[in-house]
Amino acid sequence: MCNDSIFSKEEEVIRESEEILTSSEFLENSLAIHYAKLLERYKKLFSQTRRIIRMSDMMQQELNLLSEKLERLSTVDELTEVGNRRAFDDLFLKEWLRACRRTESISLLLIDIDYFKNYNDLHGHLEGDSCLRMVAGAIRSSLKRPEDFVARFGGEEFIVVLPSTDVAGALKVAEKIHLKVAGLVIENPGSSVSGRLTVSIGAAATIPCRTMDRMLLLAASDQALYKAKNQGRNRTCVDDVQASPSSL
Amino acid sequence: VESLFVESTKSSPYVHFDPQLHVLEIRGESYPENAAKFYAPMFAWLEEYFASVDNDQSIEVNMEIVYFNSSSSKVFMNFFELLQDAVVAGKNVVVNWRCHEDNETALECGEEFMEDLQNLTFNLIEIPGD
User: Fold this and answer.
1) Residue A62 near chain B (CB below 8 Å)
2) What is the pLDDT of residues A8-35, one digit of tens each?
3) Fewest CB atoms less than 10 Å from the CB: which of A90, A154, A193, B30?
4) Of residues A49, A18, A47, A11, the one with CA closest to residue A35
5) Rounded distance, CA B14 to CA B24, Å?
6) Which residues of A touch B115 (CB under 8 A)?
7) Is A58 an 8 Å CB contact of chain B?
8) Which of A52, A54, A57, A58 to mutate to test the interface with B (most CBs of B within 10 A)?
């Protein structure tokens, strides 16, 4: 009976007690009535214990749901539904340390929407928000491996972490992102590049070691993004990781 | 008997037992570090109070607990049993278990408490959401 009950032992105690109480030897016993009362009290307390555990499970379930919700709120950018800055910080650190351990390359792509201010000024902020969501979607759909990660880095900036990826691999992903963004066909008359919405991308890759500051890779992608902007936008540039953090 | 008043904290509820109005209120969250220790003064107060009131006295108990831990639920069961004893002794005790209509967990827990009781009037009261 009730092998699936977590209380099979308690139930066994009750069953055995009842068997003893109804056995012929015990029926004659003057103590039987006292034992019967004790058993009733035990049954009552046991049913309370079951209730306590049921309630506790319900409360815990609710806390778990709440904690999932908070986890989501604290790691996801509400507008674009990609990771937020905090999620990037955590993930970048984790992947950086992993790359150190494996002596593997890791890449960053820093992506900025070209002339986004003009787009916003022309279409209004609601359209601007919708544009950010579409670009976020285009970037996300350009990432194929589960470990590739995109976060909103700032206003109209996104950052992609590509573990186990060298410069050549990073440039391939960047190219895909340019194509996907072009495929959105969002008009941006305020852009001097093409009249359509485009992005500039700064790429940087390195094989990190423990003594290296991971901010150097971020600074390199930032430098590369500046380069892409200065060279006319709608392109990807690469910058090398500097030996010293002088650029920060 | 003087009234009992305990301010709420992050982990313990607001408690106000009023012996003039015969209204006992517990409101808030209940996960004190030591539930037995936290609620001991309330049980001491109740013992004194029940000894002092007339047998047919109407007593209202209002509980609005958003969240409570397992120890607190055991304390509440002991509390309800004490109230049951008071009813058996002739007092007219009504418990109002109040919770927000969208707080299904608190509602279900109220039902669990209710099912455990005989003799004691236990009302589940849903507070409409805003």
Assistant:
1) yes
2) 999 999 999 999 988 888 877 888 889 9
3) A154
4) A18
5) 11
6) 51
7) yes
8) A52
